[in-house]
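User: Before I run my own analysis I want an independent prediction to cross-check against. Here's the chain; please return only the C-alpha cells and, at the end, one sentence I can use as a sanity check.
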Amino acid sequence: MTVPAGPPTGPPTGPKIELHVHLEGTVRPATLLAMARRNGETLPATTVEELTELYRFRDFDHFIEVWVLTTHVMRTAEDFRQVVVDYAAEASAHGAVYVEGIFSPWFRVRRGISWEEIFNGYADGVAEARERFGLHMGLTPDIDRVLPPEEACEVARQAVRFRDRGIVGVGLGGPEAGHPPEPYARAFAIAADGGLAAVPHAGESSGPASIRGALDALGARRIRHGIRALDDPGLVAELVDRDIVLDVCPVSNLRTRSVADLAGHPLPALVDAGVRCSLATDDPAMFDTDLGREHAVAAALGVSARDLYEAGVAGALCDAATRQRLAAIGAGADWDAVAAALATAVRTDPLAAGIAAAASSPPVTAAGRPAVVPTAGPGADAGVGFTDGAGTAAVPR
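Assistant: C-alpha cells:
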C-alpha cells in the first residue's frame, strides 16, 4: 500500500466539505515518527518505510492497534496543534473549504494528559488552519461507547467548557455491537444544554436500531456513517423527512468490511432515496485514502460532487454567516468542469476504476456465459471482489 502524502496532482475536483474525519487517523507515518522521537516514545518501527508498512490495512483489529499507537504518541498541545494544521494543509490542497475534525480525549486523560492540554492544542490548530489556509474548521470530541455513562458525561462537560474555542458538537464512536447509544442520553443532554450538537456514529456495522437510538435518545443532528439505514425503508423516509445528513465514508466502509465491495456501496441508493449525504475520509492515513480518492469513488458510483457539497453545507455545524459563505462557494463553482475532472480521476484511481469496470463488465460463469446476479436473497451481497490494485481485497461480510 502506498500511503498518500502531500498535495494532490492532476486537475482540481471542486470545493469540498468534510464532516467526518478522525484527527488521530490523519497522522501520516513521517509525522508519527517525528512525534515519537520528540516525545521519547518507542515505536515498533524506526523508519518511515517501516511505519508505512505497519500502516498497511490488514483487518479491523490491526487498524485499532495502529490507531491506539498513534494516540499514545500524541502527548502535548504541540502534537495536537500539529495534527490539525497538517491535515488542514492536506485537505485544503484537495479543495476543502470546511472541515469538522473528531478527536477522542478520554483515553489521553486517563494517561495523565490534562483536558486543557488536549482541547487547547486542537483549538490552537484550528485557529492556525484558518490563518494559514483560510480553512474553517470545527471540532467534535468523541465519546467512546466503552466508557461508563458518568465518564461520558465528563467528556460532554469539558466539550461545553471549550465551546468558545471551536467545539461545535459531540460525537459517539467505538464498537456499535453490544454498545447501543441509549446509555449515553444524559451525556448528550449535557452537550445540548451547552449548545453543542449531537453527531454520533451509527449504522456503520449495526442496523437501523442503532440509527434510531442515535436519533431518539441522543437527538442526533447528523449521523456519521448511517449506511445501514437502507435495511429499513421507513427509517430512510424518516431521514428524508427530518433532513438528517449522513456523513458517508465509502473507502472506510470497504476497509472495515462494512460493505462487501464498493460497486455495491449504499451511497447512490441513499442519495436516490432523497437522503442528503456528505462525503468524508474517516481515517485517511490508515485507510489509504484522501478527499480526492473519495470523490473519485463517489463519481464512479454516479453521485454528483454538487449533491455531496450541498449536503455538507446543510449538515455543517457552523453559524449562519459561514453557511452563507459555503453556499456562495458552491453556487459559484463550475460543476460541469468538476464532473469532467472527476471523470479523469475515475480512470486513474484504482478503486474508482474498479467500480467503473464492475459496472461495465457483468460477471460471467466459468463457461463464459453471463451470470445471474441476485437482487435479493442469498448471494445478493456477495459483491464482485475486486482489489484496489494494492492487494486489498473486498470480501463479503
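Sanity check: The domain at 16-27+74-320+339-350 is CATH 3.20.20.140 (TIM Barrel).
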